[in-house]
Amino acid sequence: MILTVTLNTALDLTYEVAALTPHSSHRVSRVVERPGGKGLNVARVLGALGHETVVTGFAGGTTGETVRALLAARTAGQPVRDALVPTTGATRRTIAVVDASSGDTTQLNEPGPAITPGEWAAFTTRFTELLGDARAVALCGSLPPGIHVGAYAELVRLARAAGVPVLLDTSGEPLRRGIAARPDVIKPNAEELAQLTGSREPHRAARDARRRGAHTVVASLGPDGLLAATPDGLWQAAPPAPVRGNPTGAGDSAVAALLAGLVDGTDWPDRLAHAVALSAATVLSPVAGEFDEPAYRELLPRVTVQTPATAA
Amino acid sequence: MILTVTLNTALDLTYEVAALTPHSSHRVSRVVERPGGKGLNVARVLGALGHETVVTGFAGGTTGETVRALLAARTAGQPVRDALVPTTGATRRTIAVVDASSGDTTQLNEPGPAITPGEWAAFTTRFTELLGDARAVALCGSLPPGIHVGAYAELVRLARAAGVPVLLDTSGEPLRRGIAARPDVIKPNAEELAQLTGSREPHRAARDARRRGAHTVVASLGPDGLLAATPDGLWQAAPPAPVRGNPTGAGDSAVAALLAGLVDGTDWPDRLAHAVALSAATVLSPVAGEFDEPAYRELLPRVTVQTPATAA
After folding, report:
1. How many CA atoms lie within 13 A of A38 on its CB side?
2. Model confidence at B1: pLDDT above 90
3. Which top-level group of life is the source organism from (chains A, B) (predicted)?
4. Domains of chain A in sequence order
5. Smallest CA–CA separation between B184 and chain A, in Å?
6. Contact check, Cβ <8 Å, A106/B65
7. What pLDDT, on a 0 to 100 scale, did the predictor assign at position B3?
8. Contact B106/A66, CB-based, under 8 Å?
9. What are the tens digits of pLDDT across the range B66-105?
10. Would you say residue A102 has pLDDT above 90?
11. Catalytic position from the list B252, B264, B267, B292
């Protein structure tokens, strides 16, 4: 199975309003609840692709109950197995307020519950057990309050000790520390990569991130696709044309495709093509975080993958 | 006991953000959860004043569970007894996004669950049973989806048939229909009263609302206090000076004071003085919907109550 870790899971709420006007009152015309947090999104996409997937991390309170119920209720593809560790604190909510007229989104993110040292110890025990059956693991998203900033470095080391390939998708100091523990893949976006390396030139920044410890760097360049700096060289993969839609979850779909390619042992150009097509199909889906299956199949053969020489 | 009805209970969330900017992302620095809906607020204030109080209405889903847990956890004064009727649909959330710098608030209100005919029937049965022990009843707030617009008129008639004095605090068509069933008291604000009667002149509008069926109309005039049109005449009650603060819950505190005066059999000037002082003490409290007890005691003897001749 493929294991995904979401330390700061969320109950994702989407609120539709006519138009958000600060300092006034709004009637929410539509409420959608989804299980949230990057690792849960990645797992759902993997499940939809038919992969056996297990999620771990933390869930607590009535919001955590709702997240687990929503996760269990999803039926498309392979069910995702819930190995979340309970917390005393309640799982956070994230709210996307969507203006019905323009589709513009305003995001409100709760910080998440404080994790106690005992809960962190219970998690690392569970994580180590789950690694026994894992063919790959993804560590995804922000750290909730109370967890030490080197937490991802600790988990990368546990995965490497167990011989399980590990992908790290986070930002800021947790990414900086995590890279030093030598993860197999990191997947920053252009902004996160610039923040890490100080360079806004993606090729240079990706190579720099490799020197800092990541075996492979797959940088998402938004509508321009993905840039991969691997031990075998550089590749750039792009959709046939820019796609318009809701980018929520596009990065998580790319992570899912990279994990799937990793366990299937496909080569980098093939993995990147799948990741770009799945990402674009997620942007095109009317439902945030889901992917448009016919669009995925249609886009896949049309993704261009260029080698460093032609890409430069 | 005093009974309060909240058909559309809510999980009230207050989010503190640096400043709300549409179409950007916000880190919520502080989350406060409270049991919400006007009738629950009224009951909490009555409990704090030492009155035996029972709440009914609807609660469902994990949000409803949270509301009930928060209601049970409150310790100040007399505990509020929970006689809420379960629903299949989940209790709505209401979110107040407060800008930390200015204190300005942006409100997002979910519509609430659709109530089924069976749930409404279960509620009216429970309501009728509770009326047997009630010395007064307040019907508070908006109607959730699925409940017929004459619902409050139906409940006013049930209360009157049981000989229990009934206060109605709602707006729009449910208020218009409810008044025709002849409630003992209505407590509109100036805007609701104008909407009901077509007049923005409070004295004229209050008298008009009495002609439509309300025995007594207590109109809240914001910082100017309360205007009461009763069978015994008109009174206007005002705080000694305008108070600055968060007006959330000030109207609910006024309702609580009016109910307390009703069951204690005090005269109208005394009831209105308590209602104005409690309202102002609620505006002054740093916590939305709570009242500042020392401020309440200090303000009470300083509220001015004028008879119609001097008020005109």
Report:
1. 21
2. yes
3. Bacteria
4. 2-6+38-56+112-311 (3.40.1190.20)
5. 30
6. no
7. 98
8. no
9. 999 999 986 677 889 999 999 999 999 999 999 998 888 8
10. no
11. B252
